[in-house]
Amino acid sequence: MLDSMLMRYIPVLEGVVLAHDNLRFLAPQATVKADCPFANCRVNFEATVWSPYVGMRLVGKVNLCSPDHVSLLVHRTFNVSIPRHHIPTDNWEFEYGPAENDPEYGGDEAEGEGEAEGADAQAQAEDSGRWVHKLTSDNLGGKDGNLEFTVIGMTIANQMLSLIGSIQVDPFSPEHVPDHNVQTSAQKTPRARKAPEPEPEPIPEEIAEDAIDSEEEDTFQALGRMGDEAAARRAKAEQDAQA
């Protein structure tokens, strides 16, 4: 049962159990409680527990770099993530690695046969890009890839523990908290004023009177009356022209 706790985060112990030893029973007999199918007995043991805490300073090895975060391994086992807003971008910037279709991607295979495993891992991490110093162009973590950070948070999922780190001078400053309520450019831009609508042209009196009369008449009756008036005006115009 204790073996099943190894490399797991145990809340009662507030850490990850790495090893246990000196197991001994505290009583020569076990007890049966109610309908429990197991016999219960008290034991005593010694355990080695990895128990980091917020504010602790640790050193991890860089194993992956991306524009959004840097991944580390502590003791070659425990994962650490340093978000972008906890990297001092005033001094550091992300440099993208070569594209996969680059003819020089991967370098000369013959030259890499004698490389050490640590150097190969570092080269693989740099394929996706790297964080470099703006003035010296040195890699984040130096030549050996070891980076000191401050623990600012812990994540526990499926009894596995991972850390969130920061390399800011003041890692707990509110300035390093991302602001998700930033106004968009559309919200910042003032609304354009609408052009004034042109004033409507005055309606001739004859049309206005016809409109008033048409409100009291049926639509078809109004159309017939207007057609008769138009025919009468044409006939009168022809008579005037002949005269």
From TrEMBL:
Assigned GO CC terms: RNA polymerase I complex
Presence of keyword Aminoacyl-tRNA synthetase: no
Keyword set, alphabetical order: DNA-directed RNA polymerase, Nucleus, Transcription
Ranges annotated as biased composition (Acidic residues): 101-118, 198-219
Domain RPA43 OB: 52-167
GO biological process assignments: DNA-templated transcription initiation; transcription elongation by RNA polymerase I
Protein origin, superkingdom: Eukaryota
Major localization listed first in the record, in broad terms: nucleus
Start and end residues of each stretch annotated as Disordered: 93-130, 172-243
Localisation per UniProt entry: Nucleus
Biased composition (Basic and acidic residues): 226-243
UniProt cross-references to InterPro entries, sorted A to Z: RNA_pol_Rpb7-like_N_sf, RPA43_OB, Rpb7-like
Name listed for the protein in its UniProt record: RPA43 OB domain-containing protein
UniProt organism field: Phlebiopsis gigantea (strain 11061_1 CR5-6)
